[in-house]
C-alpha cells in the first residue's frame, strides 16, 4: 500500500488498473494498493456466520437511515471518515451487554450497556415451576446505564430473565436464579 502525495496524474483516478493495482481515496488521501483477488480457500462456518451478520447489519443500516431523526442520531456519533450508514452498520452488528443484575428489596436493577444506545430492558419473573408470574419493561435510571423494575414479589427458587434490546433490535438474554 502506498499513499500518493502531489501527483497530478492520480488525483482524479479511482478504480483498478488491470489485475495489478487498485487506486482509491480514503479521508482525502489517495491510496495505491495491490489488487486483491478472491480467496482460494473455502470459507469456514464462522466466516459464513460473520458474512450473514454483516449482510443483515447492512440491510438494517440501509433501511434505518431513511428516517431523518435516526440518521441524524447516527451522524452525530460518526467520526472523521465515517457517516451515518457506517455507524448504523456498527450498531446492528453488535448486541447490547447485560453487565450486572442486582436486587434491592423487590426492585430488580439491571446494568445494561451498548456502544450506542440500549432501547429497552424487559424483565420476566418466573416461579420455581417455570411459570411467568409477571413481566414488564424496566425504567431507565438517571445515570443512563441502570434500569429499574419494581416486581410484586421475587419467589424463592424462581428465576428472573432479563432481555436487553438495542435500537436495531439485537437482544441479549440473561437469566438469574433466585
Q: Give the strand order of the largest sheet, numbering strands 1, 2, ... along the chain.
A: 1-4-3-2
Return the string of H and E elements.
EEEEHHHEEEEEEEE
Structure annotation, total helices: 3
Poorly predicted ranges: none
Number of strands: 12
What gap, in angstroms, lies between the N and C termini?
57 Å
Please report which band the strand proportion falls in: under 5%, 5-15%, 15-25%, 25-35%, 35-45% or over 45%.
35-45%
Q: Any idea what the radius of gyration is? A: 23 Å
* Helical proportion, percent range: 10-25%
The main β sheet shows up as:
4 strands, antiparallel
The assigned structural class equals alpha+beta
- How confident is the prediction overall: mean pLDDT? 89
Shape assignment? elongated
Amino acid at each position: 500500500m502506498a499513499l500518493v502525495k502531489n501527483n497530478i496524474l492520480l488525483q482524479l483516478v479511482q478504480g483498478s488498473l488491470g489485475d495489478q493495482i487498485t487506486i482509491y481515496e480514503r479521508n482525502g488521501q489517495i491510496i495505491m494498493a495491490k489488487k486483491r483477488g478472491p480467496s482460494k480457500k473455502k470459507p469456514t462456518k464462522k466466516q459464513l456466520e460473520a458474512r450473514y451478520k454483516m449482510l443483515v447489519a447492512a440491510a438494517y443500516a440501509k433501511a434505518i437511515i431513511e428516517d431523518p431523526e435516526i440518521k441524524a442520531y447516527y451522524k452525530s456519533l460518526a467520526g472523521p471518515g465515517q457517516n451515518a450508514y457506517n455507524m448504523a452498520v456498527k450498531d446492528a452488528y453488535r448486541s447490547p451487554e447485560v453487565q450486572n443484575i442486582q436486587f434491592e428489596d423487590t426492585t430488580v436493577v439491571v446494568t445494561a450497556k451498548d456502544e450506542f444506545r440500549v432501547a429497552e430492558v424487559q424483565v420476566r419473573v418466573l416461579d420455581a415451576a417455570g411459570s411467568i408470574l409477571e413481566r414488564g419493561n424496566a425504567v431507565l435510571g438517571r445515570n443512563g446505564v441502570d434500569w429499574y423494575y419494581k416486581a410484586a414479589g421475587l419467589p424463592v427458587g424462581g428465576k428472573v430473565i432479563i432481555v436487553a434490546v438495542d435500537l436495531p433490535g439485537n437482544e441479549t438474554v440473561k437469566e438469574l436464579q433466585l
